[in-house]
Amino acid sequence: MKIGKTLYFDHQATTPLDSRVFDEMRPYFGDNFGNPHASEHIIGWRAGQAVEQAAADIAAMIGGESDEIIFTSGATEANNLALTGLAKRAVGGHRKRILLGATEHKCILEIGRMLSDDLGYSVSHIPVDRSGRIDLNTLEGNLGDDVLLLSVMAANNEIGTLQDIPAIARAAARHGCLFHCDAAQAPGAFDLSSLARHADMISLSAHKMNGPMGIGALFIRRDLQREIAPVIHGGGQQNGLRSGTVPTALCIGFGTAARLVAEERSADERMILARRRDDFFEKLRMLSVPVWVNGPEDFSQRHPGNINVGFKGVTAEDLLSRMQPRLAASTGSACTSGIPEPSHVLRAIGLSEDEAASSIRFSLGRYTTDEDVEEALAIIREAIGDITDTGLLEAG
User: Fold this and answer.
1) CATH number of the domain where residue 343 is located
2) Which one of 26, 54, 230, 323 counts the least CB within 10 Å of its CB?
3) Which CATH number goes with the domain that contains 95?
4) Which one is catalytic: 107, 177, 181, 335?
5) Does 181 participate in catalysis according to the annotation?
6) Spatial separation of the C-alpha atoms in residues 87 and 93, rounded to whole Å
7) How confident is the model at residue 389 (pLDDT cuts 50, 70, 90)?
């Protein structure tokens, strides 16, 4: 898709708001402005019923129930509520260890550091293989009856790796360990309808699934909710787990986006998206510089819109700057932009600093067309040519 004169290939940073989602949200910016927690009049009742339906739609997408959905400001807050909320309640118990995947989102790793420094938990990172998948044997060797929580993301935000969530969940369950899954990138990647059967807590974000920014959710299994301490205190809304007035319009948008993800035709959309991604990569391989793929080489094990590639002898920063303002892509997570260090995800799968510095994430989405792919390839080809012509191509 094009935004003005810019081709957008950064859907894993954020997705454009679906027009159908905005149409459903629009009334709640106008006459349907009621506070959904105002329980003494019809204006509040109507808003509250709409929010309840949105929660039901989100829950249905993952196979849960509406009272297991806690609205948050996004997946980062959901991750904080899941890990910090559980850890605070469990302080002093016999389960003193927390396990995190080595390629988790930066916020998960930062929360882990805080739980270690402030609450005294022993936090370990489970390594991944070259494709970014959790090594199940290593995971099994780290699990035990002293592990409180395991957190593994369903679909990686940088290299698109899809984890074997059922197998990971079974391993955790064998040791009585709770399992949290950051599924912010999972909508659009695979069928989520049974995810709640495998994970005790699931983090979600509307803006990663063609919904609005500023709204996310944490699924918390009903019988687990009493074990979670709130991280935002106030009026005790949302079962006492997250105080504050929820933004009605954003909740409605999130629910609508979830319904669209859960539709049967989503499977066809994923197939079309994967075909475009595969075509894009095959043509990238025909560039004048060697190109390699980061993450799963078996593309069935990665997000259908994700392709993270390295350009031999070319720095990603230089290539991205030469493509501006015609093509939007990124070096990795938007949440770590501005941090002058190699991607922890790329380093975890074994890339050198130079290889990581030569890698770019292209992420296609619902509105990407075949014409967009061809135009993007032409822009990349021209930028590579400019680098070659100016003698800036690095040796090696």
Assistant:
1) 3.90.1150.10
2) 26
3) 3.40.640.10
4) 335
5) no
6) 10
7) confident
Each residue's pLDDT tens digit, 325-349: 999 999 976 555 555 578 999 999 9
Cα separation, 264 vs 350, in Å, equals: 38
Say if 285 falls within a structural domain.
yes
DSSP assignment string, 114-165: HHHHHH--EEEEE-B-TTS-B-HHHHHHH--TTEEEEE--SB-TTT-BBP-H
DSSP H or E run through 293: strand 291-294
Please indicate, yes or no, whether residues 364 and 252 belong to a single structural domain of this protein. no
Neighbour tally for 79: CB within 10 Å: 27
pLDDT level of residue 28 (50, 70, 90 thresholds): very high
Give me the pLDDT at residue 394, please. 58
Residue 51 to residue 72: CA distance in whole angstroms? 13
* 114/246 same-domain check: yes
Its domain, for residue 289, covers 2-16+265-389
pLDDT digits (tens, 9 = 90+) for 232-274: 999 999 999 999 999 999 999 999 999 999 997 899 999 999 9
Please list, residue by residue across 271-281, b when 16 or more beta carbons sit within 10 angstroms of its beta carbon and e when fewer do: eebbebbeebe
What is the separation of C-alpha 212 from the centre of its chain, rounded to a whole number of angstroms?
15
Residue 394 lies in a domain: no
Tell me: pLDDT of 57 over 70: yes
Which of the 8 DSSP states describes residue 254? H
**Statement to judge: residues 246 and 274 lie in one domain:** no
Residue the block writes with tokens 């350009």: 311
Span 108-121, mean pLDDT? Answer: 98
Q: Which of 93, 263, 77 is nearest to 187 (CA)?
A: 263
User: How many angstroms separate the CA atoms of 200 and 186, rounded?
Assistant: 16
Tell me what percent of the residues of the chain surpass a pLDDT of 90.
94
| The domain boundary residue, chosen from 262, 277, 304 | 262
DSSP letter assigned to residue 238: T
341 SS3 class: coil
Sign for the CA dihedral angle at 237, 243, 248, 254 comes to negative
Full-prediction pTM beyond 0.70? Answer: yes
